[in-house]
Design a protein that fits this description.
Length: 95
């Protein structure tokens, strides 16, 4: 879960999220909301993402400002759950 959070939140290509699905949702103003353990237990979900699934939440009143922040300053809006997992990864990582 921590590694997944780091991959989605911290791994970048030219400053933007490396994962193309994350990049799509963030460009459109979403918040990286929740990482679900075993959220996709289909054969494809297990092979591609170890069964993890991510929820992106759109707060309509914030989508324009979230999108502008991401596109302008490359700032990712994320929930406390995601930020906590990222922080735990950073504290325990040897990277």
């Amino acid at each position: 879960m921590r590694l997944c959070a780091w991959y989605l939140y911290g791994e970048k290509h030219r400053g933007y999220a490396l994962n193309p699905v994350a990049n799509f949702h963030l460009q459109n103003g979403s918040v990286m909301w929740r990482i679900n353990w075993m959220g996709d237990t289909s054969p494809r979900g297990l092979a591609a993402a170890c069964g993890m699934m991510v929820n992106y939440r759109y707060f309509l009143e914030d989508t324009a400002s979230n999108s502008a922040a991401y596109l302008g300053t490359k700032q990712i809006k994320a929930s406390e759950q995601v930020l906590s997992l990222v922080s735990q990864f950073q504290q325990n990582s040897k990277l």
